[in-house]
Amino acid sequence: MKLLVLFFSFIFSRGLYAIEWKTETPWQKGRAGSSQSRLIVGHGPIPLGAHEIILGLEFKLAKGWHVYWKNPGEIGFAPKIEWGLPEGWMAEILYPLPQRIKTSSGGEAFGYENSVVYPVVLKGQDFRSESDFPIQLKIDYLVCAIQCVPETVDFKLELAVSGLEKALLSPHETKINQAFANVPSPAEAGAYSVEKNNQGFLLKAFRQTAEQIEDVFLYSPQKKLKWKMLSLSKNSASIAEYQFEIKNPPTAVEFSIVSRNGSKRMLSSLWYGVASQGPSGTSKRIEIQNHPQISQNSASDLSLSLALFFAFLGGLILNLMPCVLPVILLKTTGLLKTQLLKRSVLSKRLAMTGLGVISSFLCLSFFILFLQNLGRQVGWGFHFQSPGFVSFMAFLIFLFALNLFEVFELNLNSQATNKIHSWGKTDFFEGVFATLLATPCSAPFLGTALTFAFSQPSFTMILTFLAMGLGLSTPYWLLILFPQALKILPKPGIWMNSLKRILGYSLLLTSLWLLYILHQQTTPTFIFGMVLGLILSFFILRELKTPLKWGLVSAILVSSIFLSENFSRSTELTESPDKEFSEARLEQALTSGKIIYLDITADWCLTCQYNASFVTNTRWFRELLEKYHTEELILDWTNRDAQIGSFLEKQGRVGIPFSMLISKDKKILFPELLTEKNVKAKFEEFFGKP
């Protein structure tokens, strides 16, 4: 009877504590939808006097996605944690042995796929208060597949405190113990030794127990490590030597060694150059609150250099895009006129244009950061979603065209004219103008660089935009270095009047294109008023000879900008004008078994229009959709749409063109610039070769 009472008392106490104990936080889903995370607890209420608490950071990852070990490999970073704990308590995160993961660039990352639990040990003074033990933490982590998405989650948990002498177990005990079992333990004394040499490090394994080394992972708190492992004496009976070739080896390195003794697998940790480390010998102790393990700059050095290179290359290619063509033509006529100028004057004018491009990109990055701090969704070409900006550009380009047709001349006094030429203002604003027209275009490499930039800290974004500006302005800097290239251009003559008219017509066509965009963003009433304003400006500039004409034209311009915002209309779904896009409807379609080709486009995106004309509207593409029983969904992002913007963010993109094949359990993203070859290759990759 006594045993029965004890049994039911135990069951009752377990049920009571199950209600009151908090052994986990709710799952928090990352904004990309590819990861979930939560905080789990390894035991029940904390007994009074406890000085150690066991936790786990659990991640669930979608297929093909991974998070990182403490040495992430070529790119990425391990989870960074800021803790908020009671006074006198500190946290130590441990890292289970990682997997070797092949990246899309052909490199290698060290991390975890599918799921992982990072064990955490909280240590501090004896906890004597019977009030709850509060835990707060903020985690910044990077989850990667083809793209990488930075995520941030916050957890709060109140652990119960009991008068029990010993902590009871929690449902997560087994899971956390398994994670601890995958954390390398300090190597036995005399089992291994490490020496530093000119190539890197020499690891010696003494085989008293006939251990066989299967793999080794390296970590340094000073830098990310990439190494090449060479076996020097594999067949020796008593010792095995392994050379680790490392460029600029650090002074402190941890060797996580995977070895086998018969059927027993062993995980050992050995430090070189560190006098002391955490109790487990496997991870660096974290400082509380404001001292993350790895600085953000050092976490992404290689990826930053690649992103800057892609940004420069993308900016350079933008010179060949139709968006920038009118400005290039304008600059060409200017260069033809300057062939007779001194080299110093020519260099100054070219430099001012280049500085105009670079300054504009820097200003654009600052403006994007400002809007992001206000909580706005911002992507590449976002300003063309503003009817006010499009109205301003249409009006400005129309005025440039009228100037080329000699409808009006800027008649300034000689002193003002000299100042303008001496300051290079005209050349500078040509660079600004080129940048504004380049922004609705995308180019190869540019999408990758922009996706990286929009997910990084402010300084990195500014550097990326600076690299883009340098790329777009490269032709001007090259002409400064090699001015003799201008000699291949024909000498100025009467034929230039015909060229001016061609330039004027090209600018008029650009203005008409912007009016078409406005037609999609505003009402017919506003378009009628806008056209009327342009016509009125034409007659004012042609007929009036007084400075008053500029006041009237400016008033029309300001009115157009103001009214365009007031007459703007909400965006619509291209295929179903009566329905707005929602991820819930997309998810519903995918759940029913449909395979969808999703295309996000905009009227202001010239690369999107190219893709539509030469790829998605062609007969062969329609036959491709029919062959693979794929439905097409086209989303129009001409106007601002928070749901489409949010969807792009979750896919790790910040701009368009954007296209993907997606089913309920699989997806694949397409390049920005589509061709028949790369589209068919992506379909074969998704469905398999027939």
Structure commentary:
The chain has 4 domains: 22-182, Thiol:disulfide interchange protein DsbD, N-terminal domain (Immunoglobulin-like, Sandwich); 186-282, Immunoglobulin-like (Sandwich); 303-566, no CATH class; 583-687, Glutaredoxin (3-Layer(aba) Sandwich). The chain contains 20 helices and 25 strands. Helices cover 41% and strands 23% of the residues. Mean pLDDT is 76; it is low at 1-20, 275-302, 411-421 and 570-579. A 5-stranded antiparallel sheet has the order 1-2-4-10-7. By secondary structure, it is an alpha+beta fold.
What share of residues are in beta strands? Answer: 15-25%
Which spans of ≥5 residues are poorly predicted at pLDDT below 50?
1-20, 275-302, 411-421, 570-579
Radius of gyration using CA atoms only: 32 Å
Cα(first) to Cα(last) distance is 72 Å
Q: Give the strand order of the largest sheet, numbering strands 1, 2, ... along the chain.
A: 1-2-4-10-7
Mean pLDDT: 76
Query: How many domains?
Result: 4
Shape: elongated
Major sheet: 5 strands, antiparallel
Structural class: alpha+beta
Number of helices: 20
Helix share, percent? 40-55%
Q: What is the β-strand count?
A: 25
